[in-house]
Amino acid sequence: MSGRALLMWDDAVTAYDFGPSHPMDPVRLSLTMGLVRAYGLDKALDVVAAPAAGDSTLRLVHREDYVAAVRAASADPGAADQAYGLGTVDDPAFAGMHEASALIAGQSVGAAEAVWRGDAAHAVNFAGGLHHAMPGGAAGFCIYNDAALAIARLLELGAERVAYVDVDVHHGDGVQTAFWDDPRVLTISLHEHPRLLFPGTGWPEETDADGTAVNVALPAGTGDEGWLRAFHSVVPELLAEFRPQVLVTQHGADTHFEDPLAHLAVSLDAQRAVQEACHALAHEHVVGGKWVALGGGGYAVVDVVPRSWTHLVGVVGHAPVDPASVIPSSWRDEVFARTRQLGPGRMTDGRAVLWRDWESGYDPADRLDQAVLATRRAVYPLRGLLA
């Protein structure tokens, strides 16, 4: 297996553009790639582009009639069929929508194929992680579910156990739905409580008969210590029991305290700590360390997303960026030229990364501990583990 890591990138992914008033501004992708280059990470990883996902690949997850509806809306946005979630406020139709969505999906599928073949141990597609798209419809800014498609391709290639860990602030509902009751796929989602946030799913009791759908519903306001405690109290133990052959992770940056669409209070430093934890878990629990890392949500498109995903690229590429480093002025000039905003100055929020292990005991009156315990009680007995 090659020791190099892959960064999946094609400039054309920035055509995934719902319009100027939509929170999913594609500038977050171009600014991330600009920061990656400013730190020289495009030399530490092999930057490659995969072809767009074709119809046969898309149909591994999505219904044929839905793919046809996306194509039709892509050719004529005014005729988008809202019965498929297209042409809505969340998912406005735009010219070339099918091509841009299929290209992003192709990067994730290509990453999965390369890692499974052993061309690289790790691969990252920060343009991906569009985890809300359903087999028969668009949802939550997501047209094609590249994460589910990558997993489906791994299964098609012969993988018997794939683990998916999603730390986006929103529930990874589309991936869970795609593999509900499929014992070959373990899905773990840590997200803000569904009572408070889209898509309204992801309750701790929401699991299948084998306990392979795992949901940790975090209280609003959860910060670094609680978020990291929840992650480390659930994810490592389940991965150790499941023994995946590939780990796929989704790293939505919208858990950040500056994100405008949610209510968690996580710092860039904690996000980086979870990225590093996923890297370590891939090497600990997956033969060959096979790891595919994806982006996801994130709507603080200047201050947060580029820094978070540049850290992710560095971690994937075994070339971590020093959080204390001063961000190159060339990138800050690019930010100002493109957005008329002043970019951040360092790769850190200046937060200490600390948490308590679950083994140290839990507080039954603490809302975070209640959330973790609810998940463990719902899932662990089904997996033969002690809650």
TrEMBL record:
| Pathway in which the depicted protein is active | Ketone degradation; acetoin degradation
Checking Pfam families in the record gives:
Hist_deacetyl
UniProt keyword annotations, A-Z: Acetoin catabolism
Q: Kindly give the InterPro entries that the UniProt entry links to this protein.
A: AcuC (IPR003085), HDACs (IPR000286), His_deacetylse_dom (IPR023801), His_deacetylse_dom_sf (IPR037138), Ureohydrolase_dom_sf (IPR023696)
**Chain segments annotated as transmembrane:** none
Q: Where is the Histone deacetylase domain?
A: 22-314
Domain of life here? Bacteria
Q: Which family does it belong to?
A: Belongs to the histone deacetylase family.
Protein name from the UniProt record: Acetoin utilization protein AcuC
